[in-house]
């Protein structure tokens, strides 16, 4: 048993300890206690109990509430959370209780933890850390930390990111100006004798706050503090708080804690604590890592988010003994914890207890509460729920009635307090988690009329005050003119329980009482009628409600530009810009062979040549964008995509460098070695000396560019864009080039030659690693056979041109993203029954041979990006069937372009109704042909392409030179 093993380890560690053996548990009172908090205390307590059985030493359990911590984020579980926004940064012990039940926020949370622990009769002492700091209790140990400050800072900072490292100090002053905990500072001087430090809050520091989309400057974050000035403060008597990793080590050392637990997410922090102990030459405590509790979706349970299974729910659904049993089983694994767990947890608890009784298992030091003593004669939790679901008891008395009638439960068992407690919890679970799922179904007017007449007939039966017999129910059906008794039963069950089956109706009616049954039935009919009327609301009504409930977007002209107030932007000499662009275009043309060969390890030769030609055309047509070259911004930062490095460098690096004092560009890590070879042939420094190329890791690059960037151009997934955007200021113009669907539609009157030519071009270009590639090729059934036949013929011709990049004739090479190759393997498995050509994939080399999947549109559209040479062809029967693809909820967010071959009334309707912009429907051509660097590119789907202007998202095609001019220069 794990607790016995730990008890023996503690015994060995404390062999030389003649005093009290201290056990510890930490608790952050920034949100409501959850199962993880309760679990940690109970698990430490059982280890303590096991230790006491093998040792005669006195023990103590200290639960330390870290109430001097700053409030960094207001939990959504608090009432009126907006009221606490002004308290961000203040110590938890100095913030009013939002529940108005205690003297402070932390005091109220501490009381809730005490209340949650009360049923377990534990011997512990809950301590407020703020009181110990402010009383001077920790002063002697804090002085030890101050004497080794530099070494301890290095231990902690070595595990931090670059940005946080710039302003990290283990001593965090409690400001005498604002009362806030200062978390970002530089210590300028240490006076060990006086126990003082001199610190400064750095100006122009970027701070990323928890839960926020953007960074904020230190001047904004610490608006009430002197910025860039030396401030002297004592580190003793609570004038400073230790940063939490150092604080954890400090309180463990000060009390000589022998044993404490921590979640697996704090493994690195626990290692930091051990290293701090080593720096101070102190023996570290035994720190046991346990698996986290996650919610039903597998996400870590969080106090601030309030996800998962609250302690209040736990007490309602699960007996205490079952909860303890659940927590003590294998504490090292991550465990999902949600209301449904109550069922299996209790039944496992009963089964394990039965084995204990039979001598097959060890009772953990007599700690468990006992389950009902009547063994198998008692209903399991699941069995009770099954009975309640079938019978739908209206109250606890009815629940007992149905248990006695439908189960082996005996009347005398009901006197067992443990069993009645389980029945109550199972019934509560049924009422709150099961019954609400049985919503009344929609009723047409005829069914509504029939059910009301049935109710009236039953009301007449109630006059006789006798139990209703089954025969009387059928008589009621006959009296209201129902031809099918089974249909009438289904109608009643659907209305009452949301299902076409249910409990025996005569027993259900008699248990409720006829009058109560009629009231329940009529109430359910009214609900169903209300749902029916809601479903038939006109589109105009729905739009009106939506419009009235949403905030109108701010006018773009009102958005503050990301530039310094009063700063004059330098004018651009467009003739000089044109000359530099033309010179570089000539360089590309003259050295095209060398440049293309420099990428022979990264992409096919034909792709590199095509990129060069695109760049030359773009640079020579720069005159078309001349209105956008008016004045320079300070700095533009770009994150390149993993494909088309030459063209992407021109669009997102070279052009921005002509619009800014400086431009920074970072290629993806997987491209670094190839990009360095490319740079040798491009010779960018000759033409664009203000363009800086960085091969630093992404975190370092973000740290280097966050404070100085006016513009960020990011190509990648919206999820990755969100992570990067958090590190930049809100006023930074953020341009996102995301991912689009770009379907090809081949109608009944399409030119098959033209459609096949385009399909081959957009799917095979760069082996499908291009956002212009279509997720689906939708083909009308009238031409489907010819389309597939021609496609196969052309792919057979291509088979000899698939292989290594080094061969210039090859047009399909290995995938440049190994991780995506593995994703494609999974998608190939998912759609393998629809594969009709190819299907060969080598996860090691990354080579994916051209593949065709044929899957009828009636089975659902494909909205997944393959980034591989995959033709996902979907036949459709009628023009209107296209609605199944374009009106699916997964289409709109990534709406980009539609390539239409032939004619389609449905696609024309999309444009006419405004659901698709006219510029994003391409007729008898494809995106690869029409895309030009001097034209806007993208769609109106928020995940396809958008701008973030001072935090406002604008979904539209992007063109960096236009967007920079429009939002930073012309405003």
From TrEMBL:
One Pfam family cited in the UniProt record for this chain: Aldedh
Domain spans labelled Aldehyde dehydrogenase: 710-881
Sorted UniProt keywords: Cytoplasm, Oxidoreductase
Taxonomy, superkingdom: Bacteria
Transmembrane regions: none
PANTHER family: LYSINE--TRNA LIGASE
Protein name (record): Aldehyde dehydrogenase family protein
